[in-house]
């Protein structure tokens, strides 16, 4: 029972195929969040009215 609770899946044969894309997606999300205002300006035409 305790062995099941302590199992982390570190012996999974495709662990790198799970961790690397997850990490890259996380970093991409941080990048998008950091530049969200600039990205929003690309899609919002100048002089448009929005409710914020």
From TrEMBL:
Transmembrane segments: 15-36
Name of the molecule in the record: Uncharacterized protein
Organism ancestry: Archaea, Methanobacteriati, Methanobacteriota, Stenosarchaea group, Halobacteria
Keywords: Membrane, Transmembrane, Transmembrane helix
């Amino acid at each position: 029972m305790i062995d099941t609770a302590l199992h982390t899946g570190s012996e999974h044969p495709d662990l790198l195929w799970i961790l690397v894309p997850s990490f890259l997606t996380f970093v991409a999300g941080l990048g998008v969040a950091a530049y969200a205002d600039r990205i929003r300006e690309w899609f919002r035409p100048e002089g448009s009215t929005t409710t914020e």
